[in-house]
Design a protein that fits this description.
Bound molecules: coenzyme A
Helix content: 40-55%
Number of strands: 11
CATH class of the largest domain: Alpha Beta
Distance between the termini: 44 Å
Order of helices and strands: EEEHEEHHEEHEEHHEHEHHH
Radius of gyration: 18 Å
CATH topology of the largest domain: 2-enoyl-CoA Hydratase, Chain A, domain 1
Mean pLDDT: 93
Length: 241
């Protein structure tokens, strides 16, 4: 188990567990968490012992209540921010991981919280989940990939409506919108994520990784290019006759 200040990272039977761990602040995403998340993602990406990872939030009330508002106006100048982003592109790293990532979501899932969830491949939620994108109300826009990942998951019109209206989404609607794959009771959230992770971890990791890539990379391609990608990936996993 690696104990950072804002994240708990554990490995158990091929599964990596990433727990956002600032429950006193509803797991708000601060600069420290950004740096620590980068290290954890790097470890998940490279560690052959981790075949699948589960992301969750500590405490009873939230997966993550978005960016830490106490750091809100302490951001560095745009030039420094761009340099930091270049050196430490958390969201690019997140989306480059070829292993399945599962988000187990409960309580508040706001701003960066949704964006972390959208970097995962499968989203499970408990009945008490509430999604929201408060950014425009704060005079900013999502900058952790959400303006691109959300419409790819729920479509442009719905993404715009949710972002521009500031309306929060509860479990049933999130499921209807396909923002989450499944809604379960609070007690079942982690066990359900673990059952799924276990199933995935028992499959051949190369086949799993290629299947993920065929779908996630294919979504950004034309059908023709997507079929080429599939053929290329399949060659590595289909035994030659
Ligand atoms: N950044 C920093 N601290 C946060 C936070 C955030 N985004 N969200 C919650 N907290 C802290 C609160 O300051 C409070 O700390 P305190 O106990 O030291 O006063 C604690 O978490 C509990 O939050 P609280 O506001 O008391 O709970 P609530 O049930 O009344 O409200 C929310 C819950 C989520 C509606 C409310 O906390 C909220 O609106 N948070 C900000 C959401 C946001 O705009 N995020 C930024 C997105 S870009």
């Amino acid at each position: 188990m690696s104990n950072f200040e804002t994240i708990i990272y554990e490995k158990l039977d091929d599964i990596g567990y990433v727990t956002l761990n600032r429950p006193h602040a509803l797991n708000a995403y601060n600069l420290k968490m950004r740096d620590e998340l980068y290290q954890v993602l790097d470890a998940i990406k490279d560690d052959a012992e981790v075949k699948v990872a589960i992301f969750r939030g500590a405490g009873e009330r939230a997966f993550c209540a978005g960016a830490d508002l106490t750091e809100f106006l302490t951001a560095p100048s745009p030039i420094i921010a761009r340099q930091v982003r270049w050196e430490r592109d958390v969201w690019g790293l997140f989306l480059s991981i070829a292993k399945p990532l599962i988000a187990a979501l409960h309580g508040y899932v706001l701003g960066d919280g949704i964006e972390i969830a959208l970097c995962c491949d499968i989203r499970l939620a408990s009945e008490d989940v509430q999604f929201g994108l408060p950014e425009p109300g704060l005079g900013i826009i999502p900058a952790a990939g959400g303006s691109q990942t959300l419409p790819r998951v729920i479509g442009g019109a719905k993404a715009l409506e949710i972002l521009l209206s500031g309306r929060w989404i509860k479990a049933e609607e999130a499921h209807r919108l396909k923002l989450v794959n499944r809604v379960v009771s609070r007690n079942e959230l982690l066990p359900e994520a673990e059952r799924l992770a276990r199933k995935i971890a028992d499959f051949d990791p190369v086949a799993v990784s290629y299947a993920k890539q065929a779908i996630t990379r294919g979504l950004d391609l034309s059908l023709e290019q997507g079929l080429e990608l599939e053929a290329k990936l399949a060659r590595f996993v289909i035994p030659l006759h």
